[in-house]
Fold:
Amino acid sequence: MTAVAALPLSAELLTVLAELGHSQPTEIQTLAIPPLLAGRDVIGQSQTGSGKTAAFCLPILERLPRGPQRVLRALVLCPTRELCAQVARELRRLGRRHAGLSVLTLAGGEPIGPQFARLERGVHVVVGTPGRVLDHLRRGRLQLQTLRCVVLDEADRMLDMGFAQDVETILQQTPAERQMVFFSATFPRSVEELSAKYQREPLRLTVAAEPEQAPNLRQLYKQVANGEKPAALLEILARFADGPSLVFVREKATAAELSRSLRAAGVSADALHGDLLQSERDLAMAKLRNRSTRV
Structure:
């Protein structure tokens, strides 16, 4: 398949893809979209950056009911809050012509009250981390009876992070007649066992990883005494860092102290560590991305 227009999608979604400049589907999109639209259980094995998010988002959007009623139809489980935000953004971006589309992120690090309110008003798609989704289920705020599709994104990573029991508890509360989709970079025994337990005759789709290119990296090191580190860091930043930079330290207190000393030396810097509020961490990363913070 060489053109997005050849995908079995509605004119509405094809128009959105054209507006976004997508003329050719990736290999995983070509392989996965038709069986997902047909309701098949699928295991998609592909690397990050292969287009897998759109591969499952487009079928979810295609199969959502039209009209003012907001009924939960799809649940996407992700291992991290950041990946939840990324998937939710993609759903909203691709679903921009779906009138009234409601996508809710349920993840830690955000206040739970507004999430209650959104659930009460009704949503079409929930994208969440296992812990926060399970929290809402136990409180009775989230009901899964109307689900038609469940996606485990980065399933291998999710299980490696210790979410296996939470994931199983959630899957046990989903309807028997629902589509179950796994996307995973690898297929370890843990994912294989989960698939055997919850999927029905899944179609296995594998996209080979691209050969690794030689990284365009320059690696240097400088051996200095403890007291000489701040001066050495300033010298390295001045000589080699012509763009945004990350400096890793051992302790949270050191991160705060070093960011203050860099600012005192005239270098725009922010700290990023676990004692900060999630909003403060998000702001620090946003400022690094838009280059208003250098370090």
Notes: The mean pLDDT is 90. Residues 46 and 140 are 35 Å apart (CA to CA).
